[in-house]
Specification:
The protein has ten helices and eight strands. It is an alpha/beta fold. Bound molecules: phosphoenolpyruvate.
């Protein structure tokens, strides 16, 4: 059976002292996890986290990556730079990037491609807004978002991680029910199976107000292979409880 992945998305939170306290609390509370664990930190703190998490069971992730190799792209961070700090995962296409930075499906696909080529696992986020769900467009939206990544990446698709993150559930305290989440995960799994013979090894994470209380039920669904956790990843006891639920 493939191991689940629990990835924390710290978003634009933290600072040198807070990161150190959080990383130490996580490492102190983590024996040998039965699942894979990662934290996706803000770019300026990757160097700090690389040191704090060295030789530990917690892998390092970034929250975004440039689709470009290098050059005149002010503010962007390249895969080569991430590699220098031991980054293993990069979130791409988070709904906050799509919403506030106008990232298109094609841009997200290009970022995933760049990450894969460098040996960084992209955590490709897909998810519908509340209006799209209410209009009955959930499937259409997530399939369109994932199709762009499949189209750009061909057989390499088996190396990605997918995160289903309904936009209406992110940071709102409203979680998709385990049944709602499983329904969409099954759709994504079928789409991946049609694209790759190795689709069953692709982890499909659920994200959207996953917390210590609801994680076990969500993670028990057959096509939920882990979680992408925002708010609850900033509290060590809660994140550790979610990790234990994935064991
Ligand atoms: C996220 O930002 O990826 C996320 C799932 O956030 P939260 O857990 O806070 O809803």
């Amino acid at each position: 059976m493939k191991k689940k992945l629990i990835a924390g998305n710290w978003k634009m939170n933290g600072g040198l002292a807070a990161n150190e306290a959080l990383a130490k609390a996580l490492l102190g509370g983590l024996s040998v996890p039965a699942c894979n664990v990662a934290v996706c930190a803000p770019a300026p703190y990757l160097a700090q986290l690389q040191v704090l998490l060295a030789n530990s069971a917690i892998a390092l992730g970034a929250q975004d990556v440039s689709a470009h190799e290098s050059g005149a792209y002010t503010g962007e961070v390249s895969v080569a730079m991430l590699k220098e700090f031991g980054v293993r995962y990069a979130i791409v296409g988070h709904s906050e990037r799509r919403q506030y930075h106008g990232e298109t499906d094609a841009a997200v696909a290009a970022k995933a491609q760049r990450a894969l080529a460098a040996g960084i696992t992209p955590i490709v986020c897909v998810g519908e807004t509340l209006a799209e769900r209410e209009a009955g467009k959930t499937e259409e939206v997530v399939k369109r978002q994932l199709a762009a990544v499949i189209h750009a990446n061909g057989h390499c698709i088996s190396e990605i991680v997918v995160a289903y993150e309904p936009v209406w559930a992110i940071g709102t305290g409203k979680t998709a029910s385990p049944e709602q989440a499983q329904q969409v995960h099954a759709v994504l799994r079928a789409q991946l199976r049609a694209a790759s013979d190795h689709a069953d090894r692709i982890a499909i994470l659920y994200g959207g107000s996953m917390n210590a209380a609801n994680a076990a039920q969500l993670l028990a669904q057959p096509d939920i292979d882990g979680g992408l956790i925002g708010g609850a990843s900033l509290k060590a006891p809660d994140f550790l409880t979610i990790i234990a639920a994935a064991g």
